[in-house]
Amino acid sequence: MDDIPMVAGQADSAEPDWSQLNRIFYEADPADYFEIRSTLLLLYAAHPDGFGDLLSGGLSYGAMTVTFPDGSDDDDAETVGAQFVATEAQILYHHTIEALLRMYLAHREPTRCPWIEMASLRVPRDFKKLIEDRFVKEVPNEDAWREEVARTFLGRAYEDLSEPRSRTAVESIEMTLRVFAKDLLDDAHPYNAAKHGLAVNPMPSIGLTIGNVGKSGPLHHAGPAFQILEYTGEPRTWKMTTRWVDPE
């Protein structure tokens, strides 16, 4: 474990070398990681047979070589593949927006080291409260969030916010952030169930019909879904909940 870099000549000082910490932090680009994950998921979802053909010859990485059994006779291969796509799409989507919102919170106010701001958000409920207070509840000072979003996402690229182009860009970013924040909070249970121990039952397709079948006007929905256990309600009890997801 390396020590935090200190300012040269001030080893006894409590002042870290912020410029070096920031350089290390910004050398990594989370977008690259999420782009590769989404590409691999799309590759598998679009060409599962080709993916299997690629694996059939075995794979090597460094000193490790792995061979895979022939799954051509596996009647459950299509079901397992659909379960994987639904689960990974849900986890990837929420992992991405959580990273984005954490980045935003770390950069929305001037700070010497955004990395420390991000590392300080360690308690999930504190993070969720910040998101709820900022994006879900009414924001009292509209000018404040406009300046905040413009400074964080556009930097020196934005013009005066009285300019229509800048104002439109900032309002579009704000609207997108609010959609992401709502999804993160509303789907917290299935996301956490999938992320922590895969405590979900992914269903490739499950249907729900409300109304009299055979008569006009019943409401019907079918598609991939998660079944999860939740401890909720008043009085609080365990319930099995079905949540439909949209991998696309």
Please name the defining characteristics of this protein.
three-stranded antiparallel sheet; two-stranded antiparallel ribbon; alpha+beta; 15% strand; single chain; globular; 248 residues; 9 helices
Structural commentary:
The protein is of the alpha+beta class and about 250 residues long. Helix content is about 55%, strand content about 15%. It has 9 helices and 5 strands. It has helices at about 20-25, 30-45, 50-55, 75-105, 115-120, 125-135, 140-155, 165-185, 190-195; strands at about 60, 65, 200-210, 220-230, 235-245. Strands 3-4-5 form a 3-stranded antiparallel sheet. Helix 4 packs across helix 9 (about 190-195), helix 6 (about 125-135) crosses helix 8 (about 165-185) and helix 7 (about 140-155) packs across helix 8 (about 165-185). The longest helix is centred in the middle third of the chain and has 31 residues, at about 75-105.
